[in-house]
């Protein structure tokens, strides 16, 4: 079932993609980004061992070709396969230009929590720690608040943080933030959203950098 909020966030994230980049897409909203990238000279990477990921129609699904979230994917012309060690070598070696990650929380310094909820069993950290260290740019796609309306952009994360590295860009259904010298800057409002809505829904302090 299509979630229009997730689609909106993914579409905005696609605008950050530039020609010739190698891009790793995380689980959740990031997997939707590829459908909005209108550029044949962009190469999608998945840490389980494939470069050249594309979408796939249901009738063409090969159960052996999946992304890191175990979702079926297709092969672009010229795509390549490799083992996980080589894939993480690409990440750690700085060969991934952009990582687009889904997260649970972000703090005031743009550090993220995306791998553990105390008391709950979830998938785990996957490649997030490595991507935060190795990717040249990190973009976060997330809902601005939790289901009970509480801010997910916090003064301090209440879940374990994934890395001490700050992410570069945060995109929600309400706004776009950039991290500048360890501080959040509000640079864009989503269509129909007011500054007051963002202020009310954001626990973390931020600089109003709207033009």
UniProtKB/TrEMBL annotation:
By its UniProt entry, which Pfam families does this protein fall under?
Answer: CoA_trans
Protein name as annotated = 3-oxoacid CoA-transferase subunit B
Q: Which family does it belong to?
A: Belongs to the 3-oxoacid CoA-transferase subunit B family.
Instruction: Cite the InterPro entries for this sequence.
Output: 3-oxoacid_CoA-transf_B, CoA_trans_fam_I, NagB/RpiA_transferase-like
Q: Where are the transmembrane segments?
A: none
Keyword terms: Transferase
Query: Which species does the entry assign this protein to?
Result: Lysinibacillus pakistanensis
